[in-house]
Amino acid sequence: EEQQRLLRNQPDQPENPKVLRIAIIGAPNAGKSTLSNQLLGRKVFPVSKKVHTTRCKAWGVVTYKDTQLIILDTPGLTNALKAKRHNLDPAMLTDPWDSMKHADLVLVLVDVSDHWTRDSLSQEVLKCLSQFPHVPSVLVLNKVDLLKKKFILLDLVTELTEGVVNGKKLQALKCNSSSSAEAASAITQTSPKDRTRESDRLQETHRAQDGFSLDNDSDARASESSLVTEEQGPKRYGPKDLKNMKGWPGFQEIFMLAALHGEEVNTLKRYLLMQAKPGPWEFHSEVLTSQSPQEICNNIIREKILEYLPHEVPYSVTQVVEMWEEGPSGELLIVQNLLVPRKSHMMMLIGKQGKVISRIAQEAGQDLMNVFLCDVHLKLKVDLKS
């Protein structure tokens, strides 16, 4: 009731409000929800190692002083064939595109630890960026802590940007592995000449993981790492162009971070706060997400099901809330029924002597207590779909 009241009422506007709507897009399992949770400072979006954990578009809200960031956490960009394979709702194909329509800035997240996909953006991501060329875009390289050879980042940046950052062409000449690491770090500094002093300071303090650091003089660093920049004019890209492209030449900035551990997330957060433009807030300052408490509960339980069950089982589970009540001491009492289509799935979900379902209930209950900041008694039941 409190969440509904906050969402329904007019926001509490400061004197000079600023706002920024941010769409986070990328391939499934790139870490979009993990990054969203880190920016919010609390876990409200489901996270698991399996793809398509996020099933629908959800908004997170960061309010800091007079600025409000609205984070549009979206399902991973996928195609119709994969959506059918995973029994996904049709909305998962359209939600990322809808988020772009509302966005003032887009973060494109790439998992650099996945050597199968890291050296190119998917066709779905490229189509999305080309459809909305007016929306400023930022490349975020995630999971850099898992890279043993950091000089790989230079090659990845060159591939994923088509050698162009912030309208300037980057030409990486032959350099050894140590200077390659410096070059990758220098690329992140590409910035317009009229950037404010605060933004310059921000970029100077931005560090890629494991010892990457930026010198005060970006031109000197670029020279040391054999990078040459030249002005590159804007260009429109058609379907035929996209098929031959591995990256996007329209990125304004590049950030390297490890969202799971929160490393360098604050640097990105400060940058986002600085990009906010004057405009009315959309949410009350006490709102953390547009999701209802029941949606958060369903997502967290499904996250645990995805973690502990074989690949094909979780996507067929239907969740039904049977009880949602406040107890006499203010605790939250929740009973949820998990419906599965086959008896074999039912046995796997329950586990030997009920160990699997008990573990799911225990871990989900703990996460819910951290979200709602109250005691939660969660009971899960398993039944066959009628």
Automatic annotation (TrEMBL):
Chain spans, region G3: 73-76
Top-rank lineage group of the source organism: Eukaryota
Region G2, annotated ranges: 52-56
InterPro entries: G_ERA_dom, GTP-bd, GTPase_Era-like, KH_dom-like_a/b, KH_dom_type_2, KH_sf_prok-type, P-loop_NTPase, Small_GTP-bd
Domain Era-type G: 18-279
Membrane-topology descriptor: Peripheral membrane protein
Predominant subcellular localization, coarse grouping: mitochondrion
Region (Disordered): 181-242
A GO cellular component entry from the record: mitochondrial matrix
Region (G4) residue spans: 142-145
Record keywords: GTP-binding, Membrane, Mitochondrion, Mitochondrion inner membrane, Nucleotide-binding, Ribosome biogenesis, RNA-binding, rRNA-binding, Transit peptide
Keyword Membrane in record: yes
Matches recorded under Pfam families: KH_2, MMR_HSR1
Chain segments carrying region G1: 26-33
Annotated localization: Mitochondrion inner membrane; Mitochondrion matrix
GO biological process: ribosomal small subunit assembly
Biased composition (Basic and acidic residues): 192-209, 232-242
Annotated region (G5), positions in chain: 257-259
SUPFAM superfamilies: P-loop containing nucleoside triphosphate hydrolases, Prokaryotic type KH domain (KH-domain type II)
Any GO MF annotation of the entry: rRNA binding
UniProt similarity note: Belongs to the TRAFAC class TrmE-Era-EngA-EngB-Septin-like GTPase superfamily. Era GTPase family.
Role this protein plays: Probable GTPase that plays a role in the mitochondrial ribosomal small subunit assembly. Specifically binds the 12S mitochondrial rRNA (12S mt-rRNA) to a 33 nucleotide section delineating the 3' terminal stem-loop region. May act as a chaperone that protects the 12S mt-rRNA on the 28S mitoribosomal subunit during ribosomal small subunit assembly.
Protein name: GTPase Era, mitochondrial
Record gene name: Eral1
